[in-house]
């Protein structure tokens, strides 16, 4: 058995797929999740896929004392992948204090404990939102970090600054911030996938829920952007590619391959697709007609963002393998599995 890794938010969308990848590569895993935007059923899906059940601790990382108690209980942990955070742009505009409290206090509590260790390795779930509307596309890691267009984006910017400042004074702490673009798709087994609680805030789960009949129609926020079809452009990366990148980044730190103790990498496909292109790709891939309507722009949205993946390709030796078509097919398979479960209950 390899090292024991803590995955915060490990029952969430990206976290659960990363837990599966870790278990399949013989890591020991412990999950912290407060189930605020996830389900305990995901733990069963992880077990079905891997034949192993990770240890699970159900508490809120905003509780400083519980974080301290956790690290007292698991002193052997020296690798942490931190996903636990609120993540919806629109919601963050409406409820900024929730985002600042949840996304920053949890990070600080974790780093305080890790900084006490002789050797600690930290992977931060960051976002391309730190770039705002970039001046040039594709976006490289050298692009300026602009004033955030949403409180969510601001928590990622501030989070990165907190980590970098902490690493400067704690050489025992090594960290990588992974700025990923738009994660989509599901595990090929359809045992785990994206399962938002309530109304989905992201395009793909809203799209698949509309296609299966849970939602009346999909809203496309604006068709007057300066793009080929007037709709926003994003870089959609399959969650399976993303999960593997987290492990590669963590191993780089654990094997002391990093040239310094803090770094950032973009994770994307390097290709942008408009919202209407995503809809057409879904319809072509599945044969399902998708009802949608054009509505007004959504506050906090930018026109276009897609990654320059050169740094991750060369330094991490990682490259996205899956296509948008692959991702949408897997998301549709997952949505059908969810409906099947709901019908049986």
Give keywords.
345 residues, alpha/beta, Rossmann fold, seven-stranded parallel sheet, 11 helices, 41% helix, NAD
CATH superfamily placement: NAD(P)-binding Rossmann-like Domain
Q: Which CATH-level-2 architecture?
A: 3-Layer(aba) Sandwich
Structural class, please? alpha/beta
Largest sheet, described in full? 7 strands, parallel
Task: Walk me through what this model shows.
The protein has a single domain (4-344), classed as Rossmann fold (3-Layer(aba) Sandwich). 41% of the residues lie in helices and 17% in strands. It has eleven helices and 14 strands. The chain has helices at 13-24, 41-50, 64-73, 89-94, 96-114, 151-169, 203-212, 239-254, 275-286, 310-315, 324-344, and strands at residues 4-8, 28-32, 55-57, 79-82, 120-127, 173-180, 182-184, 218-221, 233-234, 236-238, 262-267, 273-274, 292-295, 304-305. Helix 3 packs parallel to helix 5 (96-114), helix 5 runs parallel beside helix 6 (151-169) and helix 9 (275-286) packs across helix 11. The protein starts with a strand and ends with a helix.
